[in-house]
Structures are given as C-alpha cells and as structure tokens.
Amino acid sequence: MKKIVYLLIVSITLYSCTDDVSFNSPSFQGVKDGQVWRASDARVIVNKNGAYTIEAYTQFEVVKFEISSGAVGTRIFGVSNANKVSYQTTIDGTTQSFSTGIGAGSGELKITESPAVSGKLSGTFKFIVVNSNGDKSGFTNGVIYSIPIK
Q: How many of the other CB atoms lie within 10 Å of CB of 125?
C-alpha cells in the first residue's frame, strides 16, 4: 500500500511539472556586457532613401541600427558609416552614448527575414560600441525576431 501511495505522489508531482515557455513575438534581445537585455519595444523604420533604422528600447536605454538596406545578408559595423549601430543609456539624468564608425567599434547584423518580403525583420547580431572616452560596451547573442515595419 505504501508503494502505491508513493507512486501516486510521484506521478502527480511529475505530471504537474511542466515547462511554461512564453514566446515573445516580436522580440529584440541579447546579452549586454554579460547580462541578459530585452527590449520592451522595438521597431523597424524605412527611411526615404531606402535605408533602414532598427530601434529597440528599455526604460533607460536605446539600441539603434542604421543599415543601408533590409535585404537578407550580413552588415558589418566599424568599417563604414553606411552601416552603424549605437547604444545610449541614461542613468540619474546622465546620458552616455556609444557607437560604431569608421575604425571605431565592430560587429555584425545578419538579417534572415527581410521586411521587403514579409513586412517583418528577423536576424541575429553582435557588436562592440565605443564612446568618446574610449569606453566600450557590447552585445552578444543578439536576436531580432519578427519586428514589423512602422
């Protein structure tokens, strides 16, 4: 009888253990300086000249990609101003700005879903941005998923 009760308790316990997975669609997230970073809002903007701006926000931070097109492929940062990324944070009223530019910072954005085809942008990213003092900040394991054009 004890074995039956034990098996019943174990069965109920195992049955009640499920993985509660939540999907965020759209989403923009990555690992910033070793800490998980998730945007509370993100958008893709098509500029008049055909270039794209991808923006992601938290309460005190902004990540912005400015890229020459939204076509599927890889954009490299730190080699030209045609493709660049910036990160801005405001803490206690003080704003710090970091960015890539020619010879400053590095990284890449790989677009895997083009908004020109689906109306949404998806891809992966990693980058290191620098400020005017030479301080660095970086994102790794970045994922952009299904962000619509605004």
A: 24
